[in-house]
Design goal:
The complex is a heterodimer of chains A (334) and B (287). With 334 residues, chain A is mainly alpha-helical. Chain A is built from 15 helices and no strands. The radius of gyration of chain A is 20 Å and the shape is globular. The model of chain A has no long low-confidence stretch (mean pLDDT 86). Chain B has a two-stranded antiparallel ribbon with strand order 1-2. In chain B, helix 6 packs across helix 8. Classes of the chains: A mainly alpha (334), B mainly alpha (287). Chains A and B meet through helix 6, helix 12 and helix 14 of A and helix 4, helix 10, helix 12 and helix 13 of B.
Chain lengths: 334, 287
């Protein structure tokens, strides 16, 4: 490779790595929403946590191209790890968050080898099977998890200062926002890194990536563990901010919902999960206010239309619309 | 002991009828049809409503429970499913989850939230005693019906011209087309048969699972998938063996070691996938 080519590739990668104005506006707008609608803090918090959960799926589906119907497994592990720790009077949220992410990462690392062989269909089934197994484990080990009754616990203050939970809904949303932002920035960095580029190569063609000397198996195991840690962090946030854990965290519908969110927003560009979570939860809120029993119908219709029209085209549209809105906001602010 | 074995076999047979349609669409046609349970639900509703509102005899409702979902299957296949035959697994999963999400509120809207029961006729309820072993008549009926279906389906796919054409069309649609096989029509018929079998399974299962309600498609989705996963896609016999294995293990497990319950079924699936990840689903890349 000539020096000129190398220089041009470096310049291109450098440009890609820079934070764009539309991105900065996006995060500021998100922060502004929390302060603008204090009465809807619980809903916003739900969106932020779901956004983090969808981001975790984007790490494996969008970056590495691995399909999963069992992401709920890690949500559940993270949530239970944080809740169990809190029920043992270790109520510091940051500690619980770290424990949730770590526990989920360990489970992810242990189950990742199951993904290395077989086709997409096998992966869908293995991931689904693992999440059902873990759910059944949580169900059967009531001495640890509280079984079907769930766990009761109280949370301490974030960094020893800010109370979260029912009395501090806005603090909870801000706490989730901070965690989401930090983890997002990390994921963004990861995507630009050589590791992220190797994952892109694996996604496009695993055989050729292997032939180029990329250790594909290890890369997949690593990103799966990272994704599990993200999902575990989302679970810990969910447990801490709602102060409820129950067995339905492991349910199939959790894994399906998060996939819908990511698909609505578009996989592979990291913002898709957050935008999709917002669209999904706001839609659910609006529709279920009008017709409580039948909101699923409209989500289903949306999905069918999405697939029929073509995900790629719609995602391109969402992406362009999002950056246009962000640019206009930036211009108005200036 | 023998009663448990028999119950397990009957449960396995029931699983087989519910999943056999899926082993046609998923196993043979390689379409990840998560909406399979929705067709089963339609069949269950047909039987329950015909007996309830029209007073039709149970046996007469079964063919209708096959035909209605089959027709529905053809309509959906012609309009929507066929566009996705070549699509990625992810698109198929999303599309069929969308269908399930639509089917449940529709059933809820039309027929209400509560479970519709299928009241078995007198000659099918109660149990007989064979050499001191108590056997429920309905389970015996299920085993008989399912045995016939399994045999018929296997012969249909292996021995008939249509079966050969279907296998050819699945293996390579373009070449099959070039040989003068009407691939479109073959797929439509196969899909209809798969949907119809799901409906029949739903009708037969209604009594055992405590009635048909709008959540049926999701409640048993995982079970269907496990049966097909464990059985593999090598035709109908794989699904039959898988279903029998799971049925016996599940019933025996719940009886002897109730503390681990549903654990066994999931564990069997995961272990199967670990030991034979390629062999089970690998029609596409196992060749």
């Amino acid at each position: 490779m000539s020096a000129e080519t190398t220089r041009r590739i470096e310049a291109h990668l450098g440009r890609r790595a820079r934070w764009r104005i539309s991105e900065i506006v996006f995060w500021l707008a998100l922060l502004a929403v929390i302060f603008a609608f204090p009465s809807r803090a619980a809903l916003i918090n739900e969106i932020l946590v779901a956004g983090l959960f969808a981001l975790s799926l984007d790490l494996i589906l969008g970056l590495a191209g691995i399909v999963s119907l069992g992401q709920a497994a890690f949500l559940g592990v993270g949530a239970y790890a944080a809740a169990i720790l809190a029920s043992w009077d270790q109520a510091d949220p940051t500690l619980g968050l770290a424990a949730g992410a770590l526990a989920a990462a360990v489970v992810g690392f242990a189950t990742a080898p199951l993904l290395l062989r077989g086709a997409d269909l096998t992966r869908l089934m293995v991931t689904l099977g693992v999440s059902l197994l873990l759910g059944e484990l949580a169900n059967r080990n009531g001495w640890l998890t509280g079984g079907a009754d769930g766990l009761e616990f109280s949370m301490g203050k974030v960094l020893g200062r800010f109370p979260i939970g029912f009395t501090g809904q806005r603090n909870a949303a801000l706490y989730s926002f901070a965690v989401l932002f930090v983890l997002f920035a990390l994921a963004r960095r990861l995507r630009q890194s050589p590791f992220g580029l190797a994952l892109a190569a694996i996604r496009e063609n695993r055989l050729r990536a292997g032939a180029l000397g990329i250790a594909t198996s290890w890369r997949i195991v690593a990103i799966y563990a990272v994704s599990a840690a993200y999902a575990g962090a989302a679970g810990a946030l969910l447990a801490q901010t709602t102060q409820i854990v129950s067995l339905d965290l492991f349910d199939f519908h959790r894994s399906a919902d998060v996939m819908l969110m990511l698909i609505i927003g578009g996989a592979g560009w990291l913002y898709g999960g957050i935008i999709g979570a917002g669209v999904f939860i706001v839609l659910r809120d609006v529709i279920s206010a009008a017709t409580p029993e039948y909101w699923e119908f409209w989500i289903g219709l949306l999905l069918v239309v999405l697939v029929m029209v073509g995900r790629d085209r719609l995602q391109e549209y969402v992406r362009r619309a999002a950056s246009r809105v962000a640019l206009r906001l930036a211009r108005d602010a200036a | 002991m023998l009663t448990i074995l028999f119950d397990g076999v009957a449960y396995g047979m029931l699983l087989f009828v519910l999943a056999s349609g899926l082993s046609v669409t998923l196993g043979l046609m390689n379409f990840i049809n998560l909406a399979h349970g929705a067709f089963a639900m339609v069949g269950g509703y047909v039987t329950a409503l015909m007996m309830d509102r029209l007073g039709a005899p149970f046996l007469l409702t079964l063919p209708v429970a096959f035909l209605v979902p089959a027709l529905l299957g053809v309509v959906l296949e012609r309009t929507l499913y066929r566009r996705l035959y070549g699509a990625s697994p992810l698109d198929q999963v999303l599309f069929t989850i969308g269908l399930v999400l639509m089917a449940m509120p529709i059933a809820d809207f039309l027929l209400g939230n509560e479970a519709h029961q299928v009241n078995l006729p007198a000659w099918l309820s109660g149990s007989l005693s064979v050499y001191g072993v108590g056997i429920s008549r309905y389970r015996l009926f299920i085993v008989a019906v399912c045995g016939v279906i399994a045999a018929a389906l296997q012969l249909f796919l292996v021995r008939t011209r249509f079966g050969a054409q279907l296998r050819a069309a699945v293996d390579d649609a373009r070449v099959a087309n070039g040989l003068g096989i009407d691939v479109d029509r073959i797929f439509a018929v196969a899909f209809a048969v798969g949907s119809g079998l799901a409906g029949l399974g739903g009708a037969l299962a209604a009594d055992v699972v405590g009635g048909i309600d709008p959540s049926f498609p999701v409640k048993f989705l995982v079970t269907f998938l496990i049966v097909v996963t464990v059985g593999g896609s090598n035709g109908i016999l794989g699904a039959l063996f898988g279903a029998l294995l799971l049925g016996v293990l599940d019933v025996a497990g719940k009886y002897y070691i109730p503390s681990i319950g549903a654990f066994i079924v999931y564990a069997v699936m995961v272990v199967t996938l670990i030991v034979r990840p390629q062999g089970l689903f690998a029609r596409g890349d196992g060749r």
